[in-house]
Every structure is written in C-alpha cells, then in structure tokens.
Amino acid sequence: MRLANKTAIITGAAQGMGGTITENLARQGADLVLAARTLKPLEEMAEKVRAMGRRAEIVPTDVTEEAQVVRLIERAREFFDGRIDILVSAAGATGPIETPVWKIEGQAFSDLLQKNVSGVFLPIKHVLPTMIEQRYGKIVTIGGASGMRGYRYRAGYSSSKWAVRGLTRTAALDVGEYNINVNVIMPGIVETPRMDKLCREKAKTRGWTYEQVYQEYVEEMALKRVTTPQDIADAAIFLASDESQNITGQEIVIDGGWAA
Length: 260
What we know:
By secondary structure, the chain is an alpha/beta fold. The protein has 8 helices and 7 strands, in the order βαβαβαβαβαβαααβ. The protein is globular. The model has no long low-confidence stretch (mean pLDDT 97).
C-alpha cells in the first residue's frame, strides 16, 4: 500500500470527489480524520474506512470558520499521537451558475471566495506548524481547470480557482525547506452530483436540454470524455505519496483537455 502507516486529514471528505479520494486514501493504507459540515455522510464514510481496516475519526467542520479549523487540527493531532502526514483540501462550493459578471451579487461573490479560498487557506495555515515540526508533509489542494483559463458566466468560481492555484504555489515556496510538498489538482467537469446540478441549471437558464449542455462540455474536451472522481483520486494518491517527493508548487490538470 502506497500510504501505509500514514496519517491524513481530508476536508470535504464524505461526498463527490472528496468521498472517492477518502476511500482511496484508506485503500492505500492511510488512517484518516474526516471533515465536512454534515454529520451523517461523515458517519457513513467513516464506517466504510473502518471496514477497510483503517482508523477513522470524524470532526464536523466548517472550513471557513477558523475556530472550527483549529479544533479539527487539534483533534487530528490527538487522534494521530501528534503526527499529521497528509492534508487533502477537497471542500468547496459552486457559486453562481450561468451568471455574467454584472449580474453577480456582491455577497454571493464574497461568499464563494470565502468557501473556496479561505476554506483552503485555513486548514493549510493550521496544519503547517505540525508538518514543519516533523519536517515532513504532503498537502494536496483541489482547484479547478477554470483556474487555468477564463470560464464564461462563472467569474466567481473561476476567480476562486485561480486564487487556490496562487495560494498553493506560494505555500510551496514558503515551506519547501521543511520537506513539505504542496500541489494542486485542477479538475475540469467531473461526473458527480455537482455536475448534474450544473448541467440542469444551465439547461434551465438557456432553454436547452440537459443532454445539450452535457454534450457542449464533452465537445470542448480534446479527449471527448468527462473526468471521473477516480481520475482525481488517482492523482491525489500520487501527490500524497512519496512517489511525488520532488514535485511541489505544481498543478496537475485533469480535464480531458478542456483547458489545453
């Protein structure tokens, strides 16, 4: 197992891409602290992890609230006897869909940046003292391919993913001397309930069918196929393992060629 005897925190741990990453972390040998806002999905995911023979602790957390993030890291330190090897920040939000810049409400824009940028920054900020002390750490953030190019009618979302990219690159420079790797996965559209919601809302706004919106995404991809959660999990495992020991401050874009 590629992560045998490693300890990991994952935010957004229970559903969508985050849920698939969680299962793969456990399958590869990591013990886990699972964080998300809603308790029931966390409990269900923890049972799956334990069924694989791994240890799992759940800590309901709103990653935009600093006091809750501090509690998450403290609980992880207790659960793991002071060591935290891996942080995967998979929590995030979609924000306004099919909305041009001049129609985005200011509060909606600010709220999305809070969730998608501060919600990545705060776990990194508070896990780093532990990783610096042990002189080892792997941090994997989840950005988006819209952080590689413009994304029409999604200014808030695209802005947040550009910011995650910048945060990741800068954090990598700050902590490289402590043997800590910080990298970002940049997914394109991924086959999850969030994609389903996105296609349905776009179809409703445009007067299109769901299939027309879905196919529009496919046609923009060089490979003509939609990314799966497993595609993202495979990259997360690579970046969380020592196979990526000399990779830091980098983006892995997994979008079928959408941002090529």
